Amino acid sequence: MTPLLTINNVKLTIDGRPILRGVNLIVNEGEIHAVLGPNGAGKSTLASLIMGINDLRAPDSGEIIFRDKLVNGLEITERAKLGITLAWQEPARFEGITVEEYLKLSGRNNPELDVVECLNLVGLDCSYLNRFVDDTLSGGERKRVELASVLAMRPKLAVLDEPDSGIDFASMEDIANMIKTMRDRGTTVLMITHREEIAEIADRATLMCDGKVVQTGNPKEVGQKFKTMCVKCEVRNPELVGGE
Amino acid sequence: MATKNVLDTVAKKFVQIGLPEDLFKKNRFNLLVDRNKVIVRYPAPGVRSEVVETPTGVKTKVYVEPGTKLEEPVTLCFGAAETTEVQTTEGEIVVGEGADVKFQVYGAMAEGIKLKHKNKLKVRVEKNARFEFLDLHYNGEETFVELETETDAYVGENAYFRSVFKQTRGRAGKVRIVLKATVDKKGVAVFETKMIGKRDDEIYVEDVIHLNGEESRGISKSRIIAVDETKATFVGETYGNAPKCRGHIDCSEVIRGKDVTVKAVPVVVVNDETAKVTHEAAIGSIDKKQLETLMARGLTEDEAVDVIVQGMLR
Asked: What residues of B are in contact with residue A106 (Cβ under 8 Å)?
C-alpha cells in the first residue's frame, strides 16, 4: 500500500480551544477511507486543513503530506492542481451558472470528461444540464451535482464531507455506488461521516473523537466502536456535541 | 438611408466592442441608428413605426398591432460610432391587446468615444399583452458615456412587461437609470438591471413600481459589480396599493476594491392590508464559499471571481 496522504501529529487550536490534538492518519492510494466521529470530533476541521479552506492553510504544528509533498501553507488552487479536491457538506450555490458549465469548469483538465455520464452516476439525467446551480435545485439535487463535479474533475484525492447528508435514505445506495465508482476510476476517497452505514463501504476507517484518532482499521469494527463507545460518550459528555 | 460603406464602418466599430458579428452579417436589424442618422430600417410584421431624425438623435413611435405574436425579437440598435457632444433618443412603444413580442435593443458606444446620451421611453402594454424589452449596452474600455435613461411604463390588466438593462462589457461611465411602472389588475412588471462599474464609474439605478391593480405583481432585481473606485447606488421602491398585490425587491451588489462606494436603498410601502411587498439586499465581497469551491476545482482566484461575476451578470 502506498500512502497518498499522510497526516502527521497535526495540532490546531482555534480561539483558544484545541480542535485537533495530534492527529495521525494515513490514507493509502486507491482506497476509500472513512473518518467517523461524533459532532465536535474535529473531522470537518481536518477536511478544511487538507484543502486549505476557511483560512486554514496550515496546522499550528504537524505536517500534511500529499504524495511526498508538504502541503502546509499552500493555496487552495495549488492543492487542487496537485490533485486534491473537496466536496462540501453544504455546497455553494451559483447564480447564473448552469450545471453543464459547472461540470465543465470542474473537469476542464480531464480529457475524458463526459458530463452526462457524471450526472448519471449521481442519479441525475441530462435534463439537469441546463438547470442553474442555484436555489432552484433542492438540497439533495445540489449535493448530487457537487459529487458529479468531483467525478468530472477526476482528482487523485477527493475529500467528501458528509456525502450522505441531505440525501434521502432510498438514494443512499446510489451515492455509495458513486463513491465506489470514483475509487474504481483512480480517485482515492477520504469520506467524512457520522453514519456507520455509509462508512461500511470504505476499505478502511478511522474513528475520531475530541480532536484525536481513537482507532483505525476495518470499517465494521470501527463502526461498531463508534456505535457503542461514542454514542454513549456523547450522552455522557454533552459538551462534546456541538459545531466542528 | 446610408450606403453600404457607412454600414460597414459602423459594423466594424460596433463588433470591435462586442456586438455579435452575426447581427450585421445576417442583416438582423429592424432599426440601426448611428448618432442621429438612421442606417438601417426594416419593418417587422405587425409592427408599425415612425422614426424621425432630430439634430441630436431620433424620435421613434412604435405600435405593435393587437394580437401580434412574433417568434423572432424586433432588433434595434442606438449607438455612436464617433464622438458627438450629445445623443438624444425619445421613444414611445404601445403593445396592443393580446400581442406577444420581444424587443432586443443594443446600445453601442464605440471604443474611445465620449458623449452624453439621453433617453426617454414611454411604454404601454395593453390588456393581456406580453412585452419583453432587453436593453444590452456595449461600451469600449476607453469609452466614456454619461447616460441618462428614463422609462415610464403602464402595464395593463393581465399584461406582462419585463425590462432588462445589461451593461457587462467595457466601462459603464456615468449612468443614471430610472425605471417606473404602474401595474394594473393581475398585471406583472419585472425590472432587472445588471451592470459592472470600473475605475471611477458612477452608477445610479432607481426602480419604482406602483402596484395599483388587484393581484398585480412586481419584481425589481439588480446585480451591480463595483470595481476599483466605482460609486454605485440602487434605489428600489415598490408600492403595494391594491388588494392581494405582491412585490419583491432583490438587490445584490458585489464590491471589488477598497475605494468602492456602494449603497442600496429599498423602499417598501404597503397601502392595503392584503398586499405584501418584500425585499432582500446584500452588499459585500464575493462569497467565500463560492470562491473556495471553484478554487478547489483548480481555478485561480481571479478565474473564480470572473466566473462568479459573469454568472451574476448573466
From this structure: 297
